[in-house]
Amino acid sequence: MPIAGEKTAIFIDGSNFHMTAKSLGFDIDYRRLLREFQSRGNLVRAFYCTAVVEDQEYTAVRPLLDWLEYNGYTVLTKAAREFVDQTGRRKVKGNMDVELAVKAMEIASKVDHIVLFSGDGDFRTLVEAVQRMGVRVTVASTVSTQPPMVADELRRQADVFLDIAELKSKIGRDPGERSDRRPREAREPHQHTPQFLQRTVARSPTGAVDDEAGED
User: Fold this and answer.
1) Which domain holds residue 189?
2) HSE-up of 73 (CA within 13 Å, CB side)?
3) Under a CB-based contact definition with an 8 Å cutoff, are residues 115 and 162 in contact?
4) Please, which residues bridge with residue 12 across strands?
5) pLDDT means per 10 residues in the chain (216 residues)?
6) Whole-structure pTM value
7) Is residue 2 part of a domain?
8) Cα-to-chain-centroid distance, residue 195
9) Gap between the Cα atoms of 123 and 185, Å rounded
């Protein structure tokens, strides 16, 4: 439950959040998401973190990032790296854990509450660190899939666990909008999935998404 007057910051692990919503069968409406958390208290900043493959094949993610920047989000990106593994498969590596953690530590002294949209167990240490600074942490992911999308150690470390399945009606995109046949440039880009995020994504034994590599 939100606490009256508390200052809140949102951190969205883009690839992990996308896979969680996809596993629950809905698309994210980022305008509705922002409004939902603005209604819950004093939202001071919303960060969206993602790695981007910088070549012509993947530039379609840019409309989403541009829209987010103009509509209340702070976008943190870095270039993802493509490589060929020992089996000859092309993979993409683009982990934003360090960048997200650094920004969270920078802002922790200025907020009372951080909402982390990720199920990645690597963030457990970050959650513990900001809690020692007196910041309350909500982890938003899901246990409604099989296997769950959130690492058990991250869920246990959080002060509050918020199942994204419970937010579906509040932050999900209206299915009726999918019938809009206008050109993409004429529509508001609620969500566009970079092609490398559409590939098979490995999960840890806990079900958390491993966003370091995607495969063709």
Assistant:
1) 7-215
2) 26
3) yes
4) 48, 117
5) 82 94 95 95 94 63 88 90 68 76 96 97 97 98 96 98 96 69 42 40 40 42
6) 0.77
7) no
8) 16
9) 36
